[in-house]
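Let's do one together. I've listed all components of the complex below, 618 residues spread over two lines.
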Amino acid sequence: MSTMLQSETLHKEKGRLQSFFSYIRKDYMLYLMILPGLVYILLFKYVPMYGVTIAFKDYKVTSDIMSAPWVGLSNFTNLFSRRAFLRALQNNILISVYKLVFGFPFPILLSLLINEIQRSKVKKFVQTAVILPNFVSWIVIYGLLYAILSPSTGAIRSIASAIGYKGTIPNLLTDRDHFQAVIVVSHIWKSAGMGTIVYLSAISGVDQSLYEAAAIDGAGRWRQMWHITLASIRSTIVVLLFFRIGEMMYAGFDQIFAMSNNLVISVADIIDTYVYRMGLEQRKFSLATAAGLFQSAIGMVLVLTTNYIAKKIDPESGIM
Amino acid sequence: MSKSGLRKKGMADRIADILISIFLGILVFTTIYPFWHVIMYSVSDSHATMSGGLFFLPRSFNLLSYKMLLNTRQIFVAYRNTVLKTLVGTLISVSLTAMTAYPLSLSRFKGRNVISMMIFFTMLFSGGMIPTYLLIKSLGLLDTFWVYVVPGAMSAYNMFILRTYYMSIPASLEESALLDGANPFQVLFRIILPLSLPALAAIAMFYGVGNWNSYMDGVLYVNNQDLQLLQVYLRQLIGAAGAKGALGDAGDLGPASRLTEETMKMTVVTVSIIPILIVYPFLQKYYTKGVMVGSVKE
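Okay, and this is what the predicted structure of the assembly comes out as:
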């Protein structure tokens, strides 16, 4: 009885294997096609994931990753005892929070206002104009900021005198008290136009008869904007908000690397710049990797959590 | 239009229109002006720029800084590298992405879910800067051109955008081609890709703009001056080190005394943004499309 069953399952197994191989033979070209992509992902994404083990090892440039001795969590305890890291973590969170609080509502406001433009040519022009900064690098933006903010030769001189400011003009790019504001404002400036794309397309899907009905009921323009336009993109806003919160651990490496300097390092240093300095300049690979792993791990937890919540609110949304 | 047609244009409405126009006008000005300022500054005589302020027109038009810049070899080297990186990198990226996305778009492809999950996971978690650096070093890619185009060749996000787009193409087209004896490569190149041109254009834009603007790869992996990227060169010129140092010998030429560092900086910024300013109004359309395709869920 049992042997019969066994042979039967064996037979079934064999049949399944056979069909699997015949399938592979038939569609082997599909595997050939995906092979480069698969090799790419394994080599350039998964090998570095294995590489994070050096956060738990004492890795020296001369040794290889495998043979480096395990040291448990000592790199992490070392990391959290360093004032510079804690400062970077604090700056990282502060800059992210500022960007979220001031930067998140801006594209929403901008889309609402662009939507109020009635001439389609003007509308298109405004949209095209505000998206321009998105197409240039942070290095270029630093150059533009320098041109505007330089206290000796910048445009800021005219701007200051136009608003009646007589005092000396501080160099905002090297001034510790204002540098985070410069980071946040330039971030908004660069990304606002891009942010309006999703909102404007959500707005364009709003049923026009709603506006007509509201107008008949005597709702003015601001009330229409509030109760119809804004209400209809509410779920888009919530979902994007959660995604933004999920990215909190990433305060903008490209931007800060391009804009910061030694004079403002105490307010501009974030986790990524700390990792760069520790790892690639001071060659403390294990310590730097520990900092990077801390960032990645918290980042992943944040993304998964916010994605879960976004999905609860709007089942259609979410990345999974 | 229908929306406004119904409205009675009352006083409040007109005031609202004016307020919105003013706000958006200021915004458009703050977006465009910095670019304009830099260009006008770069074509002004250095002495006339000393007092700073706003530039709506050039102050005593002068192209000396351009002559100086074009006398340096490095600007051509950096430009060539960035153009090559953009062309080769975008070609590699689009091909790799297009090929990876196709099998993953087919429900009959076994292993589809496992591989999709594997690629998806790379969007959640990454090894980070140091392990990636060590890998690239051990592969011998440091100080080679390939480091610009291979390690960042495929973005998982773009791959999923394209896969979603492929899945919107009716399966019957593919089936009839398979019945005619076409193999998957022929199906992809003759049927799927021609039908996916809008999505391909969009991801080509993403990769192209990304390649043109990226500089961290140039900072992290390359020391060789002959492989320097335009953005890295720009950073050297406008950064704390100052223009004179980065211009090298050419910076010490006679007329340099009549040129300020500021004018040189504005010139090199202008030279690096001109291509973007020319093409971006055309790119913008595809860019918008790509963002839209990306936000549509299966």
